[in-house]
Amino acid sequence: MIMLKLNARERLALDRILTYTPDARTLKRAYALSRVAQGESILEIAAELDVSRQSIYNWIEHFHTRTDQSLDLRLTDAQRSGRPKTVAGVIDPLIDAIIDGDPRESGYGSTVWTAPLLVRYLADRHAIEVSIQSVRLAIDRLRIEWKRPRHSLALRPVHWRQAKGG
Q1: Is the pTM of this model over 0.85?
Q2: Which of 51, 62, 145, 150: CA 20 to 30 A from 117?
Q3: How many domains does the chain contain in total?
Q4: Is 118 found in the same domain as 61?
Q5: pLDDT of amino acid 52
Q6: Domain end residue (candidates: 75, 107, 124)
């Protein structure tokens, strides 16, 4: 059984986290560490929290290895690279600059910009590979009205036959 020794300051900080934290993950880790420090079985704690035993061992290891950080940071997730940044900040100004122009001026055989054509333009001119969905989302973000307006026919006037000479 792994023993976790907490000094008085760590115990107070852990109690404060258990009482006031809004983050569920941090709360779960603080609860697990508090129970491990009280000498309870890791197997029982893991079953109650619905996590693996290895997760609790990892939390204890992070608690021991991150001693240079505050207790709050020792219980939170480490920074991860994650998914790459979206192209939103990159393609928005490029689309905004070109959308009012004529695609024929850029060498394309169309009179209007379409999402697939903008994808091709970004690949050809700026070497940026994006999806059609990314372009559509950029157009929405820029609030560009890029479809033709629909005209509704006016209702016939009451005396339309007289106007036609009938």
Answers
A1: no
A2: 150
A3: 2
A4: no
A5: 93
A6: 75
In-domain check, residue 131: yes
pLDDT of residue 146: 65
Give the whole-number percent of the chain exceeding pLDDT 90: 23
Asked if residue 82 is part of any domain, the answer here is no
Q: Which residues contact 116 (CB under 8 A, 6 or more apart)?
A: 132
Residues 66 and 15 in one domain: yes
- For the stretch 123-149, pLDDT in tens is 999 999 999 999 999 998 888 876 665
